[in-house]
């Protein structure tokens, strides 16, 4: 798990968001595999809401940048929000070293897999939403995707 205040500060700097409750951030970074090995809360609680937040933020972002219809928004948004698009955003941000993996995931280098990166980014978005509300979350996330 995240072991010190510097680690929290580092990931917050990367994300562009300072958590009021760092427990949300820590939970968002813990994979299900790790929580199966070390009983604790994991990111799954935040993934579903994070997915919805990402869809809404991307839709609003595209509308602000000239896309006015669903026909023009949906194809581009789908590319950004699917697993590969979210994983690329996560890689660009550099969240990989902060993801808390299970032993099997570590051995198989899953910390860089599209699946783990995308799910973690969704969980972070959900954790930010719970921590600071939609307006704060969307302002930060728009920078991720711009």
The portion of residues forming beta strands comes to under 5%
Tell me the radius of gyration.
15 Å
Number of strands: 0
Straight-line N-to-C gap: 30 Å
> H/E element string?
HHHHHHHH
Structural class: mainly alpha
Structural shape: globular
Spans where pLDDT lies below 50 across 5 or more residues:
none
Mean pLDDT: 90
Q: Sheet with the most strands?
A: none
Helix content: over 70%
Tally of individual helices = 8
Oligomer: single chain
Short synopsis of the structure:
With 146 residues, this protein is an all-alpha fold.
How would you characterize this protein structure?
This protein has 146 residues and is mainly α. It contains eight helices and no strands. The chain has helices at 5-15, 22-29, 32-37, 44-64, 70-81, 83-93, 103-107, 114-145. Helices cover 73% and strands 0% of the residues. It is globular. The mean pLDDT is 90.
Describe the protein's topology:
Layout (H helix, E strand, L loop, with lengths): L4 H11 L6 H8 L2 H6 L6 H21 L5 H12 L1 H11 L9 H5 L6 H32 L1
Please name the defining characteristics of this protein.
146 residues; globular
